[in-house]
Amino acid sequence: MTTKRDYYEILGVPKGASESDVQQAYRKLAVQYHPDRVPSEKKEEAREKFKEISEAYAVLCDAQKRRMYDQYGHVGIDGRYSQEDIFKGADFDSVFHDLGFGTGFESFFGDVFDFFGGSGGRKIRKRGPERGADIEIPVNITLNDSYNGAEKPISFYRTETCPTCNGSGTKQGTTKKTCPVCRGTGQQASSLGGFLTFTQPCNKCRGSGEIIDTPCATCAGRGKIKQPTSITVKIPKGVNSGTSIRVRSKGEAGERGGPPGDLYVVVRLEKNNMFDRDGDDLYTQTKIPFHTAAIGGDIDITSIKEQLKMKIPSGTQSGKVFRLKEKGMPNIHTGKSGDLYIKVLIDVPTKLSERQKELLREFAHLSE
Ligand SMILES: [Zn+2]
Ligand SMILES: [Zn+2]
Fold first, then answer.
1. Which CATH class is domain 7-119?
2. 331: number of Cβ within 10 Å
3. Distance 252 CA to ligand 1 centre (A)
4. Do 127-174+214-270 and 276-367 show the same overall fold?
5. What pLDDT, in 10s, does the model give residues 18-62?
6. CATH topology for the 276-367 domain
7. Among the bound ligands, the one closest to the CA of 200
8. Ligand 2 centroid vs 168 CA: distance in angstroms?
9. Is 173 within 8 Å of 151 (Cβ atoms)?
């Protein structure tokens, strides 16, 4: 939640402002921010602004609410009044009639309230089919899986259409009834005073317009049930940690006949003992005998794919990094391979035979 601005500040009036000052300030701002009077790209912003100033006005013009606000701030209002109640009793009629917003304003105001409803996760209009939610499942893969590509079995729970009632939620042989409270509209209107009415989803049917008398036993009338699901996901070559693989229509079932959501399989690359990965490049290190470092020679290298020979030039210093071109990971998009970087460390022997020591002493003598 964002921090709410001070009501007085919103309307630009001092703390002790009289009711008529507050009304005047609101009137001025209402003209400025009325969504019908701003260019379309600014409409959303104007709506928010309009909501903000209307709320400030509704509170500051009501002696009791204003007292609560002065004493306890926003907590005093939000903790005590519902969003609808804040507006209840406020005199919008005289403001807007004077401004000539009379006709059509009612529907506009309803529109603004629609936004309140939306922020609370409720829908005002009778609910139609809705797409199901997406599901995100992590999957661990090894570097080899990424190099070769893989198929991974994945198990998870997803909401599916109830097979017993086919999603209707009703017991076999029975049907839904039109909701008696809202007569099928899914909405309930409450008055805000004057000609202003505020609609909200029907409490009885929760906005569907229908009620179930004899619910399906399998799903208890929900029309959906959680089911364990297993699928095999193809892991493309070159995927890295964080790559998200989309599997269409394997998310949660939709509402009221809507399509299912998607499944997103999010790749987590396990740490590899031998290689560090950076993008498409791999990094490793290997020890080489000190004599090879001095006089050069071939050494064996294990890449992610195969055994390789690598030439060590004479006079190689410990810590030198060699690059083997295109021996890294395949790029997920282009398929082109990255490189393999090998850091060589000189291995100083710890056990020497007498003969070896003798030769090294001779070597040392020659080096002086
Ligand atoms: Zn069912
Ligand atoms: Zn209803």
1. mainly alpha
2. 15
3. 16
4. yes
5. 988 998 898 888 888 776 677 777 777 887 888 889 889 999 998
6. HSP40/DNAj peptide-binding domain (2.60.260)
7. 2
8. 17
9. no
